[in-house]
Amino acid sequence: MSTRIAKQGRLIDRSRPVTFTFNGKPMKGFAGDTLASALLANDQVLVGRSFKYHRPRGIVASGAEEPNALVGLGVGARFEPNQRVTTTALFDGLCAVSQNHWPSLEFDIGAVNSALSRFLPAGFYYKTFIHPRAFWKYIYEPVIRQSAGLGKPPKEEDADRYEHFYAFADVLVIGGGVAGLMAAKTAAEAGARVLVLEQSRHWGGRTPVDGGEIDGMAAEDWIAAVVSSLKSMPNVTLRRRCMGAGVYDHGYALGYERLTDHRPGTEGPRHRLWRIRARQIITATGALERPLSFAGNDVPGVMLASAMRDYVVNYGVAPGQRVVVVTNNDDAYRTAITLKQAGVDVLRILDARPTGGGGLMEEARGLGLRVDCGRGVAKVSGGKRVAKLAICAQEGSGAALEEIACDAVAMSGGWSPVVHLWSHCGGKLDWDEAAAMFLPDVARPPVGADGAGFVQTAGAASGVLSLSEGLADATQAGRAAAKACGFKAKKGKLPEVTELGEMPIAPVWLMPASASDELRAKAWLDFQNDVKVSDVQLAAREGYESVEHTKRYTTLGMATDQGKLSNINGLAVLSEALGRAIPQVGTTTFRPPYTPISFGAMAGDARGALFQPVRHTPIQDWHGPHGAEFEPVGQWRRPYAYRRADESLDGAVMREVKNTRQAVGILDASTLGKILVKGPDAGRFLDMIYTNVMSSLAPGKCRYGLMCSENGFLIDDGVVARIDDQTFLCHTTTGGADHIHAHMEEWLQTEWWDWQVYTANVTEQFAQIAVVGPKARAVLERLGGMDVSKTALPFMTWADGSLAGIPVRVYRISFSGELSFEIGVKAGQGKALWDRLIAAGDEFAMMPYGTEALHIMRAEKGFIMIGDETDGTVIPQDLGLNWAISKKKEDFIGKRAQARSHMTDPTRWKLVGLETLDGSVLPDGAYAVAEGVNANGQRNTQGRVSSTYYSPTLGRGIAMGLVLHGPERMGEVLEFPGIDGKTYQARIVDPVVFDKEGEKQNV
Amino acid sequence: MSEPISALNGARFDGIARIAEAGLTGMITLRGDLASKPVKAAVAAVTGAKPPGQGQISFGKTGAAGWMSPDELMLFCPYAAAPALLAKAEAALGRAHALAVDVSDARAVFRVDGAAAREVMGKLFPIDFAPGAFEPGRLRRSRMGQIAAAVWMEQDGGFGVICFRSVAGYAFALLKEAATPGSAVGVY
Amino acid sequence: MLILHCPYCGVSAEETEFAPGGEAHIKRFGPGASDEEFRDYLFARENPKGVHFERWRHAYGCGKWFHAARCTVTLEVFGTYPAQTTEPPQAIRDAISAKRPGWSWREFE
């Protein structure tokens, strides 16, 4: 059984018991436990089910590489699926549930897949579910979806908060093991600003477990001394529980800090995403132990040898009572020795190497442990837990020599340096045949903005596994990083290390070497996704030669652990099957993040009210309480209409139009862009920006203008007011304010930089209020302060003055065809003026109106709207706006493009009005069909609807659209099939359907 | 005449830093040849300060001058005095090619003070706010969360932030969020 | 995510402060230009594997346009310079030559 033992447990506090539940069952642990160690202490060896075959799965590792032990953690708004128990700190009240089983972990229906595994080989889904196609939608997909996915998504909104932090360092050290600490110390002592990230809550990495003496101190004491000296340095920042998640271009790196996972509900953010810029990055990310590929290596109770050692030393937990150790290298002997010293029976050490190991083997033998060399595992048996193990010769096909009853197996297939972060941004790898591992190729590092390498590896991440070499390597890395940042590291003395020499590893990619078909079909590579040695071999036989293709075909390494344990073993099997050397097969691409990070951390503060900025006008707060229903216009929220009690939204719009046409309406037009253009060359510049002539505009006057892109397409429109000889104020559309300002600056900076023109975007300096309708003048006169008569302020002019004592600039411009005043006022007094106008308008039955009424009124007048009549492919000539295109000007932006053959093509669709025969409203975006069908069998088209509304003024639907030869076809009737199944008939008419002569606006 | 109001009317929040909307602040955008005499005279007329160097804000008797670009300054002054000071600036500019415009109402100004102010800024701007890297007199235009903003350090070590008025609500909520109690990073 | 040096602000800032603007040193053709000239001006663009000249705007900073000489393979930035020029300055060309001897891009080398 798996149980807590009296000895060891350096990380737990036995005086602080903790209670938690697993699948509802109460369990006990200690402060300092991980959920993994606590589960093992409670003899909970079975912790989950695999993805495809629903095989029983146990804890196999002790850290971030764990593929099996994923649970749903927390409840309600703090529930999170797929949490690794090995990296989850235990806390009082923790609540975990296992995943991927039904109805229960112990008895799972899906496990039938395992019995059928022979019929579910690699690529099974691809091969099987292709035909018949009709089955896909209703049968295959629902079934597959039902069985897809590991954990269950949370149902409630996340209760926690998250944030980002921008950090800067000369040297970022990822990994707080002895190598990371040594590198950090070296760089920091040279004067560099150093940031050290450690993913766990402990400094020192594996070294305290593996033992050894540094400078005459126990490793643990040396680590404490180094940490304490780093803490005292002002140029060093140390962070624990903060994983280096990814390394990106130009020294960008992400750190994933878990602040309150171990104490939920505590004040402050749960996770913090560190967005780091470092000049140099040292990845001291250690190495991961590889499993061995033998039959039954997935049975709960089979564990990495180093993990088993961690559980004993760090947590005082023995994952078994009768253990067999199987290895191809010396390191696993440390586990055997540790187990023996903790009082666990180590029944046998199976060393695949013909002559076994070195000093550690002798030490184990000295403790009375039996070592069999040249031996391996034929098969591990047991259902939900290891029961027995069959021993065989490594060089053979797996004939059992002996069977041992045992309850746990510690395996070691050697070590792979964690090269992930080195590789994220393009660092290349080399295969080291002797060490049987991929090493960072220091000649081909990731390069930064200056073209020089910016990542170094240190310690085991460099492939040096011994303590002495690791410390030397880390010192070198720290020195090199400091030097690259312009600091000079003093030549220090390397720490003195006492350690035993080790014998070389013998690569073992399959155990036994010539395992039978039956054994290979039970030898797991990817525990989470259920990929076996036989699957990879099948893929190779079927022609999947690229490792990237094999990965996707078999799903090897595609689980949430991203193949941390499986990739090297898998590609070694593939290399053997293809008969090509491992470096020729290569690795799959390492992509960030190193382990999954929370969506909350990625989003940071950008959720809820802060999801995106919402822009408010100075009058915004008035609208809501007065019934406004808002519509998004860019990042603004503009009132669509002001709904009254017992009124439909549509009814409100109709009322607003009628009231504005008959009496007076008021509109918050503050969102319109306002760009000041000033200088001796301002007129000349605007003549280039607009299609018509602006330089001839007299001060005090206004003129409507069109702007095109260099492609000739219409991009914006608006009224320009000339302020004085050198100054123009250009109004843009609501959406155009920022990009038209940028457009102007682009031309000024990059083409006509010798022209004397300055621009300023003054959009938000002013609130702008439109008072519109026959009684508009009366409302302004009621406020008093300036002459707004027809003679003093004629149509298309502006004047400065004051209304109700508030300084204003009034423009006589109209987008509705009505008598209209647009009043510009300083934003800080916008609300005050609005209130005065509302009060003064009362006796004239003035009502506020929203954007929909605005749209209807402009459509009645045949005025175009950027974004309705234009879509980035429409030129002014298409819209009958030739009157606003100067023929005199030699040049303007878009002029040459409008002369291109496609732009002058007489078959371009042109703007017309559309009037339904029955008075109904045409569907927005509907197409007018023509005779015949196109190559896809669709009806040919000859036009489309660009704007369509019900006009309360005319009592029928009105619309505009672009139609082939439209202006020449007045009176013709077109057919518009709607998506509602009806076909609408509409007559081509003049787009101006209200007050064509413009008498109403010019009073 | 109605009293003008700033975007958030002086809203405040106390967390790991103190966040305050500064209320009405006079601001004049001045574009021109920053090295020219008329521009220097205009800066002096409004703020009493010398034109700031690249990436700096200079402080004077009646205001401050922030460097916005190689041909643009933001002049800070008392709100009520802005129209008169603008007239003085225009007089100083004379016939020189320049643009001076009152933008006091176009922006919101915030103050961020307190021990953790550097960290609060560091959560929102992609800028190094470490002591030594960002000191009084430094001004940077950059990105705060998802909006454009300028940030500078006052002589007393507090931060000033300006953004457009329409996003003042977003900016304040963002600053509040970054200053939430319990969220100190513990690095500066 | 790149770091670019804004030649106006004198700061090196992360890419999120900038907006890309396509190829640099494109000569404008207006009315009077032939169809071929105008087509090339509007649409013909380099797509090099290696040295490239691009336009960037310090959108969240000073708002100014500048040019960057950059390697599209390694993302190395050879230098940035103000946009008020019709060709890469000699100092930039020298910086590229030091790293990529024999480089050429359009008519420049």
From TrEMBL, chain A:
<feature type="domain" description="Aminomethyltransferase C-terminal">
    <location>
        <begin position="910"/>
        <end position="995"/>
    </location>
</feature>
<dbReference type="InterPro" id="IPR029043">
    <property type="entry name" value="GcvT/YgfZ_C"/>
</dbReference>
<dbReference type="InterPro" id="IPR036188">
    <property type="entry name" value="FAD/NAD-bd_sf"/>
</dbReference>
<dbReference type="Pfam" id="PF17806">
    <property type="entry name" value="SO_alpha_A3"/>
</dbReference>
<dbReference type="InterPro" id="IPR027266">
    <property type="entry name" value="TrmE/GcvT-like"/>
</dbReference>
<keyword id="KW-0560">Oxidoreductase</keyword>
<dbReference type="InterPro" id="IPR013977">
    <property type="entry name" value="GcvT_C"/>
</dbReference>
<dbReference type="InterPro" id="IPR041117">
    <property type="entry name" value="SoxA_A3"/>
</dbReference>
<dbReference type="Pfam" id="PF08669">
    <property type="entry name" value="GCV_T_C"/>
</dbReference>
<dbReference type="InterPro" id="IPR028896">
    <property type="entry name" value="GcvT/YgfZ/DmdA"/>
</dbReference>
<dbReference type="InterPro" id="IPR023753">
    <property type="entry name" value="FAD/NAD-binding_dom"/>
</dbReference>
<dbReference type="InterPro" id="IPR006277">
    <property type="entry name" value="Sarcosine_oxidase_asu"/>
</dbReference>
<dbReference type="GO" id="GO:0046653">
    <property type="term" value="P:tetrahydrofolate metabolic process"/>
</dbReference>
<dbReference type="Pfam" id="PF07992">
    <property type="entry name" value="Pyr_redox_2"/>
</dbReference>
<feature type="domain" description="SoxA A3">
    <location>
        <begin position="522"/>
        <end position="604"/>
    </location>
</feature>
UniProtKB/TrEMBL annotation, chain B:
<dbReference type="InterPro" id="IPR027266">
    <property type="entry name" value="TrmE/GcvT-like"/>
</dbReference>
<dbReference type="InterPro" id="IPR007375">
    <property type="entry name" value="SoxG"/>
</dbReference>
<protein>
    <submittedName>
        <fullName>Sarcosine oxidase subunit gamma</fullName>
    </submittedName>
</protein>
<dbReference type="Pfam" id="PF04268">
    <property type="entry name" value="SoxG"/>
</dbReference>
Automatic annotation (TrEMBL), chain C:
<dbReference type="Pfam" id="PF04267">
    <property type="entry name" value="SoxD"/>
</dbReference>
<dbReference type="GO" id="GO:0046653">
    <property type="term" value="P:tetrahydrofolate metabolic process"/>
</dbReference>
<dbReference type="InterPro" id="IPR038561">
    <property type="entry name" value="SoxD_sf"/>
</dbReference>
<protein>
    <submittedName>
        <fullName>Sarcosine oxidase subunit delta</fullName>
    </submittedName>
</protein>
<dbReference type="GO" id="GO:0008115">
    <property type="term" value="F:sarcosine oxidase activity"/>
</dbReference>
<dbReference type="InterPro" id="IPR006279">
    <property type="entry name" value="SoxD"/>
</dbReference>
